[in-house]
Amino acid sequence: MGFEAAGEVAIFESDPSPALSKRAGFRLRLMGATGTVADLSGGRLKTAAPYVIEQDWHAYTPEQHAVWQELVGRRMAQLQEHACAEYLEGFEQIGLRQDLLPDLKAVSARLGPRTGWASTPVSGFLPAAAFFEMLAARMFPTTTWLRARESMDYTPEPDIFHDVFGHVPMHAHPVFADFLEHYGKVCASVIDRPEALERLGRLFWFTVEFGLIRQRGEIKVYGSGLVSSHGECSRVLAGGCEVRDFDVDQVMGQAMQTSAMQPVLYAVESFEEIYEAAKAAESRIG
Question: I need a labelling partner for 257 at 20 to 30 A (CA). Which of 13, 207, 216, 240 fits?
């Protein structure tokens, strides 16, 4: 199951709480990394500590760097016009390059002084509690493997292109960074309440993964599922889905399409709106 759009990944699979499977935690599987150790988190993590690894950046091959370059090149032409200003600024601020795969230590060294976030390499199955613990600690769990050239248009698992290119530039924006941390803390506080996690998962889906924002009278993309997918992004920009004003109650009750193009998405007016939405969601779930 997954998206058929170019460059996209199948982020979610069927689950009693589909909004929180794979990317948001129930069965997040990040493949291809090596070097698992007892605790590379500096003591900041407990549940997630065994999943934190070292990225072996020097092990990437010239072919892998070439695949990264092509993936980035295919997306940036559209994103320069249609991504939100904060994403494009973040791309530069964290030092991403089109010609080389990202060194996560270097990314975190730029990101940390701005917002306190880190792009933290992980491997294996990451349970929900570990995922939310990392978000609450401003550590974004990041896979280190890259799709092969023959899978450039589709991969069944999130890879470093989706995780870093799709997600991490937004972590350089202070308000978005605060929102994501707060979201992680709220989810961690209800980890034993599947119904609450399901509703919170919809908030993640319609912001972090498929979020839109109005800027200068135009719809701009910031969600990673749109940033990393030419097909899905093009469809949205061409009017292929309904775009509604963001409303936290509608979002938390909105059915999701986890294996098809999105029929309904939500646009905020500012990132302060999603930060306030995280606080409102906390109150809604009690």
Answer: 216
Q: Is residue 232 part of a domain?
A: yes
Residue 200 lies in a domain: yes
Q: How confident is the model at residue 37 (pLDDT cuts 50, 70, 90)?
A: very low
* pTM exceeds 0.90: no
Domain assignment of residue 2, yes or no: no
CATH number at residue 109: 1.10.800.10
Domain residue limits at 197: 8-285
Tell me which of 167, 171, 182, 230 is the catalytic residue.
167
The one catalytic residue among 41, 224, 228, 229: 228
Q: How open is the CA angle 284-285-286, to the nearest 5 degrees? A: 95
User: Could you confirm whether 228 is annotated as catalytic?
Assistant: yes
58 is catalytic: no
Give 60-64's long-range contacts (Cβ < 8 A, gap of 24+): 60/101, 60/146, 63/149, 64/101, 64/146
Choose, from 8, 108, 157, 162, the residue flagged as catalytic.
162
**40: pLDDT confidence band, cut at 50, 70 and 90?**
low
